[in-house]
Amino acid sequence: MLTVGITGGIGSGKSTVCRVFELLDVPVFYADAEARKLQDEDPEVRAAMISLLGKEVYSADRLNRKLVAEKVFSDKNLLIQLNKIIHPATIKAYLKWKENYADKPYLLKEAAILFESGSNIGLDKIIVVTAPEELRINRIMKRDTISREQIIARIKNQLSEEEKIARADFVIENDEKQALIPQVMKVHEQLLILAKH
């Protein structure tokens, strides 16, 4: 079984692309969603988060993500420390999830910071979803209630599009000019061929 990473900058449309792969019966592990779940439900992760960021980051048994973002996106060291809590727990969850799909030709591991977190290590291939920065900013502003400045701060904490593309085996352009489904189908067919060898 091939293990394939899928990543892209914030607002690139990774989730949309992953949903197309899921329609093709490809299992997708959503690392970011799993990380959020662990932050809310895993006692060890919660305790480490409180130790790092203070107990005010949890209210009514839920993580105040807005407060966490304000703290970590303005302090690179805090972000590094937070990632040291989240990434090992997420990788452990991924390895357990992966056991359920040994019969599939390939599976996807979706993560916004695949390279930055080292989650690309051990994967067979990497897909990068790209979109122009201005389009990404507009998508996020429509989706989330955060300012343009906050979005730009998050973009700066991720590898540039150029760096991601340089490390990719496949690139899917989600620029609203090129059709997504034919691009996904082409990558899917190539991955099925690779999985047979």
Tell me about this structure:
With 197 residues, the protein is of the alpha/beta class. The protein has a single domain, classed as P-loop containing nucleotide triphosphate hydrolases (Rossmann fold, 3-Layer(aba) Sandwich), CATH 3.40.50. Helix content is 54%, strand content 14%. It has nine helices and seven strands; from the N terminus they run βαβααββααββαααβα. It has helices at residues 14-23, 31-41, 43-53, 65-72, 76-98, 133-143, 148-156, 161-167, 180-196; strands at residues 2-7, 28-30, 58-59, 62-63, 106-110, 125-130, 170-173. The strands form two sheets. It has a five-stranded parallel beta sheet, with helices on both faces. A two-stranded antiparallel sheet has the order 3-4. Helix 2 (31-41) packs across helix 3, helix 2 packs across helix 5 (76-98) and helix 3 packs antiparallel against helix 5 (76-98). The radius of gyration is 17 Å and the shape is globular. The termini are close together.
Please outline the helices and strands.
Elements: E1 2-7, H1 14-23, E2 28-30, H2 31-41, H3 43-53, E3 58-59, E4 62-63, H4 65-72, H5 76-98, E5 106-110, E6 125-130, H6 133-143, H7 148-156, H8 161-167, E7 170-173, H9 180-196
Helix pairs in contact: 2-3, 2-5, 3-5
